[in-house]
Amino acid sequence: MSDLPPATTAKKPEGFLPIHTNAFDRVFIAVVVFVAIHLFWMRFVEQDLSLYVATVISVIVGALIIARG
Amino acid sequence: MRPQSVGWLFLAPTLFILFVFGVLPFIYVLVVGFFDWNSFAADPTPRFSGVNNYRELVFDTGYLMSLWNTLRFGVFAVVSEIILGYALAQLFMRNFPLKGFFRTIHTLPLMIAPVAVGATWRLMTVPGLGPIPYYLDKWFGIDFLISRYPQQAFFTTVVMDVWHWTPLVTLTLLAALSSMPKEPFEQAQIDGANRFQTFWYVTLPMLKPAILSAVFIRLMDAMRTVDEVWMLTGGGPGAATRYVGLYIWRVVFPKTDYGYGSAMSLITLYLTIVLCWLLYAGLVARRDLRRTE
């Protein structure tokens, strides 16, 4: 009989994104979201709110995706 | 010398070429996109303008319309090419007289330069000279004039692209079909699967990587098509076939607006990458997730 410990089936913690991702994927998604938010903001919101707000939101969302995605 | 260093040494020429011809131009375009630079302007020197080019771009109806037309063109062309390419690949899997001859003839469009393809289709669609308007009028009574009717011009560019690039899809799928094992098909037959079930549950899942490769390659190609369409319609009538590549070309070369052209190129690249990534995430990554559950 083997002395090896029983194989664990512990799953890696899943992020909130609906696909498996590695760090590079999450950085990529963060960049994509960063650009998308800025383009959307320039088109629809910038008349009322400065683009810097979009930058702050994008950085927060990006950090969230990289850390918890 | 350590084995790792030898590996890097062998990779060095490729990395150097990739850096010089891929990374450096990309960085250059990225930087130019933040400048106002028009050699025909009163001040032809580049001036930093922040995100103004992008700000102008999101309100540019001409650019947005060209993007929409390009997407329509891409969807129509790629879907038609995949369906037709699969049918032809299945046909070439069977034995029939002169199969080798037909396969060669079918592959010939791939070897023709896009400019020549555009010129050929131009000749074929010129009223009074080309056979297409003549026979469409004679057989169906259709007034075929791509310089007047936008829909005809649009669908002619789609058909031209399908004619040119379906052989690539056929060859890709033919290679995938040829390398498939026989056992799953025999198993499906034993289990009493009909032809549709065999196609849906056996052939299609096994073909998926090849189909996805073909879709990605053709979608990226369709998003940057210029020369064929330029030769066939010149982007007209009006802006009906002014796809995004043609639109950028008009801004960068005749109008010499390098800053704005760079911004448009980058956003087009961004959209192409996002589109392909969404397809990948929707079709492949989600399945992988399900499989592990």
TrEMBL record, chain A:
It comes from Kaistia geumhonensis. The lineage of its organism: Bacteria, Pseudomonadati, Pseudomonadota, Alphaproteobacteria, Hyphomicrobiales. InterPro entries: DUF2160_TM (IPR018678). This is Small integral membrane protein. It holds the Pfam family DUF2160. Keywords: Membrane, Transmembrane, Transmembrane helix. The chain crosses the membrane at residues 23-42, 49-67.
UniProtKB/TrEMBL annotation, chain B:
Belongs to the binding-protein-dependent transport system permease family. This is Multiple sugar transport system permease protein. The lineage of its organism: Bacteria, Pseudomonadati, Pseudomonadota, Alphaproteobacteria, Hyphomicrobiales. Pfam families: BPD_transp_1. It is found in: Cell membrane. It comes from the Bacteria. Residues 67-279 form the ABC transmembrane type-1 domain. CDD domains: TM_PBP2. The chain crosses the membrane at residues 7-35, 73-93, 105-124, 153-177, 198-220, 263-285.
